[in-house]
Amino acid sequence: MSRADRESRGKVIIRTSIIGIITNVLLAGFKMVVGLISGSIAIVLDAVNNLSDALSSVITILGTALAGKAPDKKHPYGYGRIEYLSAMVISIIVLYAGVTSLIESVKSIFHPEAANYNAVTLVIVAVAVVVKILLGQFFINTGKKVSSESLVASGTDAKFDSIISAATLVAAIIFLTTGLSVEAYLAAIIAIVMIKSALEMLRDTISEILGERIDASLSKEVKATIKSVEGVQGAYDLIFSDYGPDRVMASVHIEIPDTFNAGQIDEITREIQEKVYKEHNISLISIGIYSVNTKDEATIAMRNAISKAATSHKEVLQMHGFFVDFIRKVIRFDLVLDFVPNNHDIYLETIKEIQGMYPEYQIVANMDVSYSD
Fold first, then answer.
1. Out of 94-103, 113-122, 176-185, which region has the weakest mean confidence (pLDDT)?
2. What is the pLDDT of residue 6?
3. How many other CB atoms sit within 10 Å of the CB of residue 372?
4. Which residues contact 217 (CB under 8 A, 6 or more apart)?
5. Which residue has the higher pLDDT, 162 or 141?
6. Which of 254, 358, 346, 253 shows the shortest CA–CA distance to 303?
7. 3 state DSSP class of 3
């Protein structure tokens, strides 16, 4: 993504967040007035929740502005991950609002006060439900379009808020038709829903900061692009590093014939980098080379036999980077193992088995893990 594209993306996020701030402040004001006049703690807590949503949008704006800073000597990969941190802060704010709301709700259960609803109250709450549904979907759609976790988090929270507002409307109708007050209990349920939503958002954001496995379909598409370059016989060990939305860097190993010279290798790696960036907006910062035997047909039989022996262990997912040096009597390859506790033991067992098949050769094998599909 070019700097101009990043600036355009930032403007969209900020504009969307400003709409959210204005909408939530207006909703909070109306709900607070209605809640205080009617004596409804559920509506008052709903108003507080809208204020927390407005604060979330403020944080999104600040996070987007900071994330848009150009890379510098101290942070050569840019500041894109700040957006993930702002999404985490939003989750914590929602969590705090949920916990404090739950405390107030429990107090109201033990010290109840009857609410006083009227037609105006019901209309305002009903309008708030519709507005929050539309606002939430708007945030989610825009967030997905510009790859903003903060907007998606805010939009998801807004859709939960619409459920909360709808619940307060139901409570009011129940009270007006039956005289039964479920205010405090409803407020407690609202608070629990807020806490659950916040914990889920926090979990997802922390997972992204830690570094998630890249989407399987994207991984396969990138490998297909690499293998479409003439001369490339395989693509393996594709590792992604996420430095923020649309700032993904990667490294990969490719298999090429052992007849390629340095000039051909330089040409093919540059073509791969250009093609992957153009088609997937991913910067390949490192391309490792595996040479493939092209001079001896016996290599194919050895490769097939070793691959069959290795993958007979269900924990071994793949063998690649295979090369035989017949003069020095060396066999080189990589084994990709699944994420199991005893993977190193399985690796040693597999190497021992292969060594027994070819005792006259030195086995040089690397143990890889399944970084991507």
1. 113-122
2. 64
3. 19
4. none
5. 141
6. 358
7. helix
**Nearest alpha carbon to residue 8 among 138, 145, 150:** 145
Strand pairing class (248-257; 234-242): antiparallel
Instruction: Output phi, psi for 297, to 5 deg.
Output: -65, -20
Calculate the alpha carbon distances from 340 to 141, 153, 237, 351 in Å.
38, 33, 18, 17
Report the C-alpha dihedral over residues 275, 280, 281, 287, rounded to 10 degrees.
-50
* 1 DSSP assignment: -
The answer to whether residues 366 and 335 touch, using CB atoms and an 8 Å cutoff, is yes
In the chain, the N- to C-terminal Cα span, in Å, equals: 24
Under 8 Å CB-to-CB from 111, ≥6 apart: which residues? none
How far is 232 from 229, CA to CA, in rounded Å? 6
CA distances in angstroms from 337 to 87, 253, 279, 313, 345, listed in the order given: 34, 16, 30, 10, 11
In sequence order, what are the beta bridge partners of 289?
Answer: 254
Which of helix, strand or coil describes residue 188? helix
